[in-house]
């Protein structure tokens, strides 16, 4: 079961469906260079697995050097409203 708090970034908890990188490994470009961002399919996958594990109201937040799951982090937050 993926652990979203175990890695440097929560998205690293799942394998990338696009470039096939294993959990814990950053996405790679076809050239072999490290990508500057994760593949979109991996973010979608991580989101789906996270909601499956923790429910639609949960969020994950940066706490110090690590990550913590807040079971009610999305309650009261409107997804369209982003901070400037
Ligand atoms: Zn990837």
UniProtKB/TrEMBL annotation:
Keywords in alphabetical order: Plasmid
Occurrences of domain DNA-binding phage zinc finger (ranges): 6-48
Protein name: DNA-binding phage zinc finger domain-containing protein
Lineage per the UniProt record: Bacteria, Pseudomonadati, Pseudomonadota, Alphaproteobacteria, Rhodobacterales
